Amino acid sequence: MDRQISVPIKKEDAVSLRAGDYVTLTGTIYTARDAAHKRMQETLDAGEALPIEMQGNVIYYMGPSPAREGRPIGSAGPTTASRMDKYAPKLLDLGLGAMIGKGKRSQAVIDAIVRNGSVYFAAIGGAGALLSQRIKKSEVVAYDDLGTEAIRKLEVEDFPVVVVIDSQGNNLYETAIKEYQK
């Protein structure tokens, strides 16, 4: 099924998606990779507020390349999501609506997706230049000292993703293999 979803993502939209759905996202998403996730965990451990709201928001695991003249961002392809697996369950429990990355997720992340009615999207690896054309605005909103790993607020339009793990725990990486083997 093809779907157009506004982001931040509403709970009813997240739970209506199924593994394998093709989705385009329009609205606001945030970027964060390893270093930003580590810093967010340290912030939570210190009992402090996170620099961005988690409720319904979408985090894209991406570190951009420098923007070319006239563009808001450079190449913007996904990074391997499993590197954020030790941090993701806590953020999902705080209301994170969805994540975008590439690759498999741990059972702890899958359990947190199901527990919270969230979703894991995959963006196409190797297509960062094309994906960047769907990003209309980019601004650093936290952890500027981390350079490309800073948290960025992105305005996206028709950003293409695929539902890999849905709110029921269905995992496209597993079901696609079984379907292919038939």
Main beta sheet: 5 strands, mixed, barrel
State which percent range the strand residues make up. 25-35%
Query: Briefly, what CATH class?
Result: Alpha Beta
What is the level-2 CATH architecture name? Alpha-Beta Barrel
Q: What characteristic shape results from the CA principal axes?
A: globular
Helix vs. strand class: alpha/beta
Major sheet strand order: 2-3-4-5-7
Total domain count: 1
Number of helices: 6
Mean pLDDT across all amino acids: 95
Explain the overall architecture.
This protein has 6 helices and 7 strands; from the N terminus they run βαβαβαβαβαββα. It is α/β, with parallel strands linked by helices and 182 residues long. The protein has one domain: Fe-S hydro-lyase, tartrate dehydratase beta-type, catalytic domain (fumarase). Strands 2-3-4-5-7 form a 5-stranded mixed β-barrel. The longest helix is centred in the first third of the chain and has 12 residues.
Topology:
Elements (H helix, E strand, L loop, with lengths): L1 E6 L3 H6 L5 E10 L2 H12 L12 E3 L27 H6 L4 E4 L5 H10 L2 E4 L5 H5 L2 E8 L8 E15 L6 H10 L1
Parallel strand pairs: 1-2, 2-3, 3-4, 4-5
Antiparallel strand pairs: 2-7, 5-7, 6-7
